[in-house]
Amino acid sequence: MFGLGQGGRARKAEFMSYANTVETSHKASTETNPRCHDTVGDSALRTVGQIVSPPRNNLHNRQLGMAGEEVAAESLKAAGYVIVDRNWRCRAGEVDIVALSPEGVLGFVEVKTRSNHRHGLPIEAITMKKLARMRRVMGAWLAQRDIVPVHRAVSLDLCSVDWDGHGEPVVKHLQGLK
């Protein structure tokens, strides 16, 4: 169950710490509140702790996000972009894709993938706080490479990927987020 790809041990450790938190909080409530009776015992509680684990769709969301990033990168390449960097991280955050447009604009692309619109459209996930973080990451990426934005046109972009995983994904590239 936990050996799924890289990071399986980390997910298992995260799950176990979550399950232990559930178990510990239940024990604390039974010890401090005499009206709270522990009638099921510790072994049943561990089972409950496993059932109450973090949502399993986190793995689905991660896989969907990775697939969406791949689709977005291929879409950008098909439009004549050159992929310069992917999944670059620093203290400020992460940029999904850095791509050079045919016109020479260096785009810092955030990819948002949705399999449905229950949580809104992908563009709705880009808040002012997220834009500020994207700017800091862009600045860190440029600084690491000694690139001065005055000498190079740069852009914050969004690739919106609507895809249920079965049919053809719909990719929209929005350039120049402000």
Keywords:
5-stranded mixed beta sheet, single chain, alpha+beta, 22% strand, 5 strands, 178 residues, 4 helices, Trna Endonuclease, Chain: A, domain 1
Strand order of the largest sheet: 1-2-3-4-5
Overall residue-averaged pLDDT value: 77
- Assigned CATH class of one domain: Alpha Beta
Report how far apart the termini are.
Answer: 43 Å
Pfam families: UPF0102
Family: Belongs to the UPF0102 family.
Protein name: UPF0102 protein HMPREF0576_1036
InterPro entries: Restrct_endonuc-II-like (IPR011335), tRNA_endonuc-like_dom_sf (IPR011856), UPF0102_YraN-like (IPR003509)
Q: How is this structure best described in words?
A:
The chain is 42% helix and 22% strand. Helix 1 (8-32) packs across helix 2. It is α+β, with helices and mostly antiparallel strands. It has helices at residues 8-32, 41-51, 57-78, 128-144; strands at residues 82-90, 93-100, 106-114, 154-162, 170-174. It has a domain at 58-177: 3-Layer(aba) Sandwich (Trna Endonuclease, Chain: A, domain 1), CATH 3.40.1350.10. A 5-stranded mixed beta sheet has the order 1-2-3-4-5, sandwiched between helices.
Provide a compact summary of the structure.
Belongs to the UPF0102 family. With 178 residues, this protein is an alpha+beta fold.
Topology:
Elements: H1 8-32, H2 41-51, H3 57-78, E1 82-90, E2 93-100, E3 106-114, H4 128-144, E4 154-162, E5 170-174
Parallel strand pairs: 3-4
Antiparallel strand pairs: 1-2, 2-3, 4-5
Helix pairs in contact: 1-2
